[in-house]
Amino acid sequence: MTKNTALKKVISAPYLVWAALFIIVPLIFVVYYSLVDAGGSFSLEYIKSIGRYKDIMLNSIWLGFVATIICLVIAYPLAYIMARSTKNVQRTMMMLVMLPMWMNLLIRTYSLMILLQDTGILNSVFTFLHLPVRHMINTRAAVVLGMVYNYIPYMILPLYSIMVKIDYGLVEAAQDLGASRFSVLRKIILPLTAPGIASGFTMVFVPSVSTFYISKKLGGSTFSLIGDIIEMQFKSANNYNLGAALSLILMVLILLCMAIMNRFTGDDDDGGVLI
Amino acid sequence: MGDNTIIELKHISKKFGDEVVLDDISLNIKDKEFITFLGPSGCGKTTMLRIIAGFLEADDGQVIFEGKDIGNLPPHKRQVNTIFQRYQLFPHLNVYENIAFGLRNRRMKEKDIAAKVEEMLSLVNLKGFQRRDIASLSGGQQQRVAIARALAVDPRVLLLDEPLAALDLKLRKDMQVELKNIQKRLGITFVFVTHDQQEALSMSDTVVVMDGGKIQQIGTPLDIYNEPKNAFVADFIGESNILDGVMLDDFKAKFSGAVFQCLDKGFAVNESVDIVIRPEDVDIVPVEKGEITGLVTSNTFKGIHFEMIVDIQNFKWMIQTTDYYPVGSRIGIEIEPDAIHVMKKSAYSGMFGDYSSFSDEIEHLSDIEEEED
């Protein structure tokens, strides 16, 4: 027994060191910087300045939420179809889902930009077809599209991995007991896939809310998301304290959103399905 | 079609790819009867059940329920319910909600649901289990919940797909008795699928023996055992010595080099036939008194009897006896007329009924294979 726990300690040591160095320590720094002023003495000045960024913050959360819902709506039926396909089809579809992830996020976003520009590929096609040119780049829709495009695999994977484990016999049993197709979805499939929805939601929502690159490239100078503001504090404005304060508040808000989300999907006890 | 027919299958055929699974099946199922589809794995019995339940559609033929063709009706609109081999209880719901599932689909009042769940739980001897988690139940208890869930919606017909296959022997025997009692008490038609001939014989009113997508024989358990129609049925139900014989005349059969009196008639003179003799129906007499004689080549003690393999003119018979004859001894054999069953030749002739390669071990292996599917 004691031997066993000693062994466990040894095995977990590398990760504990890692976590301390790259998760705990940076977090302490974030908290520290957000609670002091430029001179290093305790101050709530930066935390209070959040009021000025309220709109940007809400906007970020809203766009992230919209992108996450769109991902869910697209990914859910796709994951279901994948899970019900033959092994070969499953492998091929999995490959197609993963393929974009092998390319760098920056490159993916850049190519989306080229596609959407006023003189971009899509508009060239429109012109060729004698359709009016549309302004697509630098809009909220373009930013949401960028989020969906970049993060949808993170929604598909947890949903797929949980759906593939559901025994189709349960669906037959429900039909046998008088459940229509819709009832089967509502009473059997949805509750059983709730942990997958929760982890997919987390994995898309968190990076979407805090992104700065996607909004910069596809949103242009028309508006910024909270990620852009935070990046700016560290990179050009050199205001580490404000950057840290905004980060901290964003973190708290995301945790809040996740807590609300988990209430809807039931206890997220085996939620971390993604490998 | 009789007055009390509840389900009628008419010329049902089904293929999976190129493989014919059901080949022109026609069958009447009577109201309130316990009917069993019996056959080895791959004989089409489960496919037939799934076509009645609505999970599969037949390529050809009709499923008629009380005079109406229900071939195109989805499963949730049929008045039949299924007990699945692996139970398929809903893991995210507790016992109460599992049993209530079908009742909620009928928009019953909560008070009535609670009463019905209570009634069903006491029917399957699981009183007080309402709040239990499915995962916390044993296999036998899960089986009972599955039965309660299916019966809660008052089905006219209950389909049971090898429901006892996953239980251990003792529990299986208990459940056989219990299922039969429930069926009698509620007066519901049970359509039972199994590959276990003992289970089929002890529970059913009617047994449908199937092989190769075809019905081999329909009858009461006694009929099936005593009057098998062909070598397949004779071999599959119980143990049989199946011999090549000739009908010399009515009531006169020749096999193993001797002529025997029998009760069968209506065959052509000198028609080639299959003769079935059950191992327990052979009388052993002193060599000089026997109609034929044989050499004991093996002898196994089975508890209530000895099981011998006896070589009679190079054909190995299985003979069960309560007296002990050592290996190597010669015995005389006598067979009463009513112990001889004569069958017409069929595609199965010559495939079964010889015990030359018989061993307990092989028998066991084939049992395990069947249970795996």
Number of extended strands of chain B: 20
Uncertain spans of chain A, ≥5 residues at pLDDT below 50? 267-275
CATH topology of chain A: MetI-like fold
| Estimated radius of gyration of chain A | 23 Å
Strand content of chain B: 25-35%
Distance from first to last alpha carbon of chain B: 35 Å
Largest interface: A-B, 17 and 22 residues
CATH topology of the largest domain in chain B: Rossmann fold
Contiguous uncertain segments of 5+ residues of chain B: 366-373
Q: Oligomeric state of the chains?
A: heterodimer
* Shape, per Cα inertia axes of chain A: globular
Largest sheet of chain B: 6 strands, mixed
Please state the second-level CATH architecture of the largest domain in chain B: 3-Layer(aba) Sandwich
Describe the largest sheet of chain A.
none
Percent of residues in helices of chain B comes to: 25-40%
| Strand/helix succession of chain A | HHHHHHHHHHHH
In round numbers, the mean pLDDT of chain A is 87
Structural account:
The complex is a heterodimer of chains A (275) and B (373). Helix content of chain A is 75%, strand content 0%. Chain A has 12 helices and no strands. The radius of gyration of chain A is 23 Å and the shape is globular. Chain A starts with a helix and ends in an 11-residue tail after the last helix. Chain B has a 6-stranded mixed β-sheet, with helices on both faces. Chain B has a 5-stranded antiparallel β-sheet with strand order 13-12-11-14-20. A 5-stranded antiparallel β-sheet of chain B has the order 15-19-16-17-18, with no helix packed on it. Helices cover 26% and strands 34% of the residues of chain B. In chain B, helix 2 crosses helix 3 (110-123), helix 2 runs parallel beside helix 4 (139-152) and helix 3 packs across helix 4 (139-152). Classes of the chains: A mainly alpha (275), B alpha+beta (373). Chains A and B meet through helix 8 and helix 9 of A and helix 2 of B.
